[in-house]
Amino acid sequence: MLWSDPENEPPQDLRDTQDMLRRLGLLMALAMTLAMIVIGLR
């Protein structure tokens, strides 16, 4: 990597969107796990 290469840093709004999607994915995984447990207990 050369010193003249541009920084490979995404813009702030893209980083915010990625963080939100990561949280949403984690929340969906937790919800699915909880749903499986509830269905399994019935």
Low-confidence stretches: none
Instruction: Please state roughly what percent of the residues sit in beta strands, choosing from under 5%, 5-15%, 15-25%, 25-35%, 35-45% or over 45%.
Output: under 5%
Summed over residues and divided by their number, the pLDDT gives a mean of: 89
What is the tally of beta strands?
0
User: Can you count the helices?
Assistant: 1
Order of helices and strands: H
Structural class category: mainly alpha
Tell the overall outline: rod-shaped
Task: Describe what is shown at a glance.
The chain crosses the membrane at residues 20-41. 71% of the residues lie in helices and 0% in strands.
Q: SSE layout and pairings?
A:
Blueprint: H1 12-41
General description of the model:
- The chain has 42 residues and is mostly helical.
- 71% of the residues lie in helices and 0% in strands.
- It has one helix at 12-41.
- The chain is rod-shaped and about 60 Å long.
- It starts with 11 loop residues before the first helix and ends with a helix.
- The chain crosses the membrane at residues 20-41.
Give the tags.
MmpB-like, mainly alpha, membrane, rod-shaped, transmembrane, 42 residues, 71% helix, transmembrane helix
